[in-house]
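Hi there, hope your week has been kind to you so far. Thanks so much in advance, here it is.
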Amino acid sequence: MELQVMISMLATSYLVSLQIFAFTLLGAIPLGIPIALGRLSRFKPLAWLMTFYISIMRGTPLMLQMFVVFFVPYYVFGITNPPGFNLTACIIAFILNYAAYFAEIYRSGIQSMPRGQYEAAEVLGYSKPQTFFRIILPQGAKRILPTMGNEVITLVKDTSLAFSIGVAEMFTQGKGLVASQRNMIPFAICAIFYWVTCLLIEFLLRRIEKRLDYYHD
């Protein structure tokens, strides 16, 4: 098989990996905020529930969580999965998993803010939602950005786990090509795709970090 054809096949499956990556970020980043706030809630049952959720999501393998989301509709409710549900199940599992990690990152950022920030906002007449979204969140974003960046880069590589429920992402395609062509070139191409993607993310994160430089600790 020509190298150009091989690259084209891997590039096509790379779009599936990007789809998993993008939808996970779009779902997990905002979902992590209410989970973090619930974890910090003074209403103990809610705080315990969010703590339990985070513990389960972080304490069990992502691959197992994908199996649960994929097989539960059929084995528990007797619902036959529609065509293409494996990709949907994969994205749902990724969102639920990464939302738990992002929630803990948000929590650390919120709790790292000095109490004086809240008191100053109260003196200025800000409500609690206004204090959080206008004062705490922007400053906390700068503090948690490096840790968030690590999780986002990890997500790029975790998309390779989608093969476990039959999603034909790039790594799955690469394994098939390695088996059929009997050489390691497809794996090398996959590695380059992953690496370049991570480099682009690192570049974007550095740009964002510079934009947040006006928030000083």
Summary: The longest helix spans residues 3-39. The helical segments are 3-39, 44-59, 62-75, 85-111, 115-123, 128-158, 170-181, 185-211.
